[in-house]
User: Fold this.
Amino acid sequence: MTAPLLELRGLTGGYAQTQIFQGVDLVIEHGATVGFFGPNGHGKTTLMKTISGVLEPWSGDVIFEGRRMNRAAARGSRRFRNFNYDAVTRRRMDPKDVARAGLIHVAQGNLLFPEMTVTEVLSIATLAAAGRSAPAGRTDVAALFPRLAERRHHKIRYLSGGERQMVSIAAGLLAEPKLLILDEPTLGLSPKLRLELCQSIRQIKDMGVPLIVIDQDLAFLSALIERLYLFDHGRIARVLAKDQIPGHDALMSMLFGEAIE
Ligand SMILES: Nc1ncnc2c1ncn2[C@@H]1O[C@H](COP(=O)(O)OP(=O)(O)OP(=O)(O)O)[C@@H](O)[C@H]1O
Ligand SMILES: [Mg+2]
Assistant:
C-alpha cells in the first residue's frame, strides 16, 4: 500500500510559549483537494506554517509521502530552560527539506520581494523545483495568469494585491508542487480579480495538483474541494464531505453553536 500524500499525527505547535493548535491528526490522499475553514485567529496559518517547517512543531509528526519531515520529538522540558538549545542544534524541521520534497506553501499575505520584477521572482521559483518534476508537469504560467504575462517587467511593488497573489501562486506552481498549500488566496481582492483567481485555482486543480486551500469564501471552497475541515480553537472540529457542506449560516452555527443575527 502506498503511503498517503500527507499525514499529520498529533501535531501540536505555536509561537514561543503560546500554544496555538493541538493534537491535529490528518490524512490527505494523493490527488485530493481539501479546504480549511474557521474563525480568524484560531490557528489555520500557524498550522500550515508548521506543516511546511517555517515554525517548529512542538510535538507530533509531519509525514509527507511516507517520509517523516520532522526529527524525533524534543524532550518536554527543553523549551522552558534558560539555555537556548535551538540556537545550537539543528532545527527539528527544515523548511528547505519540505519544499524539496514537493510540499509547497503559498503563504498568507503575498510575501514577495517588492523590488524584483515578476519575471525575476518567477525565475527564482523554478529553482525551487530542485530537479523534481511534478505529476502535473511544468505549468504554463502565462496561460494560467495572462495578466502576469502583461506585467512581467513590472516590479512587484507596483502590482495590485490580486496580481501579487497571482505571482505568489505562479511561483508556487513553478516549484513543481506535489502538494500546494494556498492560505487565503482571495483575501482582500476586488470582485473581478477574485473571480479571475478563483477560476485559475480551479484550473490548477484540474491540472491534477493536489491542494489544501484555506479560504473564507464557502461557495468557492465548496465548488472546489472534496472535503472541508472546520478549524476551531486550534483543533479540527469537524470534517465534512463535499455533499455535507451546509450553507454559510448553518456552518456558522455549527462552529459557534448558534446562528449569528
Ligand atoms: N508571529 C506570531 N507570534 C505570536 N503569535 C502569533 C504570531 N502570528 C500569529 N499569532 C497568533 O496566533 C493565533 C493564530 O493565528 P493564525 O494566523 O494562525 O490564525 P488564522 O486562523 O490563520 O487566522 P486568519 O483567519 O485571520 O488568517 C492568533 O491568536 C495570532 O494572534
Ligand atoms: Mg490565516
